[in-house]
Amino acid sequence: MTQTRGYKVAVLGAAGGIGQPCGLLMKMNPLVTELSLYDIAGTPGVAADVSHINTAAQVKGYAGDAELGAALKDADLVIIPAGVPRKPGMTREDLFKINAGIVAGLTEACATHCPNAMINMISNPVNSTVPIAAEVLKKRGAYDPKKLFGVTTLDVVRAKTFYAEKNGLETAKVDVPVVGGHAGITILPLLSQATPKAEMDAATIEALTKRTQDGGTEVVAAKAGKGSATLSMAYAGAVFADSCLRAKNGEAGVVECTYVESNVTDARFFASKVTLGKEGVETIHGLGELTPYEKAGLDGMMAELNDSINKGVEFAKAL
Ligand code: NAI
Known about the structure:
Elements: E1 7-12, H1 19-27, E2 32-39, H2 43-51, E3 58-63, H3 68-72, E4 77-80, H4 96-113, E5 118-121, H5 126-139, E6 148-150, H6 153-167, E7 178-180, E8 187-189, H7 202-213, H8 215-223, H9 231-248, E9 254-261, E10 269-277, E11 280-284, H10 292-317
Parallel strand pairs: 1-2, 1-4, 2-3, 4-5, 5-6
Antiparallel strand pairs: 7-8, 9-10, 10-11
Helix pairs in contact: 1-9, 4-5, 5-10, 6-7
């Protein structure tokens, strides 16, 4: 469990709504010795600001294509929240046209400059951006399915908060697995497996499930055109990145729900509980026993999830 070494973490999209607080939180992580903040513009200012915090990580800002290689060089972990967020009326799928190209370009650079890095993909639509990244890395001979993660931690964070609130439980002690993907009905909280266990009627379970699925839309509507979740996402991204770093550092038993290449269902990529290890994914856990309501949710998502996966794969193959 002791720290063997520090790690280089790169945040791509570091001047954005998620990137800035995510950089701040990674600066506070004791396992980070080098923090690389990359964006197309604006990162010198963000890096100067964050660098004044008196923690160990050395912060450097990199702006524009010409500096991407240096930003990524030998990074251990790359967090990608680059791209456009949703506006009211948009689904995550609507972001595909813009974000697919951004993610492909950044992943390609990872293959060149840090082929052994763990990649934490935040850019939406995650259901497609992870398959895009996988195909791009594969083309470059740098794909290790154990090291590519779609970050679905915000769904878990939301499910925990809503479940705790509804049942009067201490939020910090609550756990709720969330499986599937990261868009609408593909987000499936397994409330029957939530701990501590609370008795809930069918209507409450349905309301909590829908609120978790629509959590992102709740924020998009409240921000009224000014973007989507940034602060809670930065928190969730930092939690997931910290889990990856702790596992890399030798801590045993680190478990997170995350969207990875998987055999749990017939979808090639699927989010479920994963035990993380030094080399990334160690064990992908099955779904456990599902209630009829959860089973129906699982069956109901598969067509959409597979479509989003195929869309990503086809996009990357056509590049
Ligand atoms: P934002 O617009 O505030 O920031 C995005 C940043 O990416 C900007 O600073 C922009 O300059 C940068 N960027 C664009 N192209 C780039 C490139 N080629 N290389 C590097 N940086 C580039 O957006 P925000 O709110 O930070 O959201 C970012 C992404 O995260 C969106 O795709 C959003 O949908 C997604 N997201 C994912 C969540 C999840 O649970 N996985 C939750 C919330 C948002």
